[in-house]
UniProtKB/TrEMBL annotation:
It comes from the Bacteria. The keyword Hydrolase applies. This is AB hydrolase-1 domain-containing protein. Residues 46-215 form the AB hydrolase-1 domain. SUPFAM superfamilies: alpha/beta-Hydrolases (SSF53474). PANTHER family: AB HYDROLASE SUPERFAMILY PROTEIN YCLE (PTHR43798:SF31), MONOACYLGLYCEROL LIPASE (PTHR43798).
Length: 240
């Protein structure tokens, strides 16, 4: 059973690698019954420490909220939740990880640092993030977002992913946690979710049919999974 409107906490959304928050638009349209706040990372912020600090300054101080970290922002959300901020009622992780989800590619880090940054081809984005769920409107949004983010910013954030490991912080998280897991994720493997589950035994996982970009391709299903999760954890999610 979903929470009544008066008990629903604020949704605070932390974006993917681009940091713009533009790709949240389909999901925001699917949750008109929630008030939402989208955190955006300035292009100069490329390290996890910088993104964590920036997001921390934008967390509500006077009301309960649910923190949602998508993809790149999973480690940001985990670090903030581990600080046990007073208003945090629940944590949602979407297509994300606590540590480098592709450790076999760590050897590419020196190359990425040496080579000039390259623009990620639109075709690669479509294959890795959307697959057969790609639509014209979504591809139009991709073409709008990619040129808006400097190539060096994307490269340096990828390097941050290679080095990140928030495993040691997981034991400090005390709020309920929901993982939205894409059944056809070509970017973040199931091993990343199993790692989270091993360190967060109470993790509530919802497996949805879709690609890495679940909030973009399955916004209604993701929104319902969120409502169901908040209903399961009860009205305490909305109480200060």
């Amino acid at each position: 059973m979903s929470l009544p409107p008066e008990e629903r906490p604020l949704l605070v959304l932390l974006p993917g690698l681009d940091g713009t928050g533009v790709m949240f638009e389909p999901f925001l349209a699917a949750v008109p019954d929630f008030e939402a706040r989208v955190v955006r990372y300035p292009e100069a912020l490329v390290s996890y420490a910088a993104c964590i600090h920036h997001a921390r300054t934008l967390l509500p101080q006077d009301r309960p909220y649910v923190l949602l970290g998508e993809s790149f922002s999973g480690p940001v959300a985990l670090a903030l939740a581990a600080e046990r901020p007073e208003g945090l009622r629940a944590l949602v992780l979407c297509g994300t990880f606590a540590r480098n989800p592709r450790p076999g590619l760590a050897w590419t880090a020196p190359l990425l640092r040496l080579l000039p940054p390259l623009r990620l081809p639109v075709g690669a984005v479509r294959f890795l993030l959307l697959g057969r769920w790609a639509t014209g409107p979504l591809m139009d949004r991709v073409r709008r977002v990619l040129p808006a983010v400097p190539k060096a910013t994307l490269r340096d954030r990828l390097l941050a992913v290679i080095d990140v490991d928030q495993t040691a912080l997981l034991a400090r998280i005390q709020v309920p946690v929901l993982a939205l897991v894409a059944a056809h994720d070509r970017l973040v493997p199931l091993a990343a979710v199993r790692h989270l589950k091993a360190h967060l035994p109470g993790l509530d996982a919802a497996r949805l049919q879709g690609p890495h970009w679940l909030l973009q391709t399955r916004p209604d299903a993701a929104a319902q999974a969120l409502r169901d999760f908040l209903g399961r954890i009860g009205s305490a999610a909305g109480r200060p």
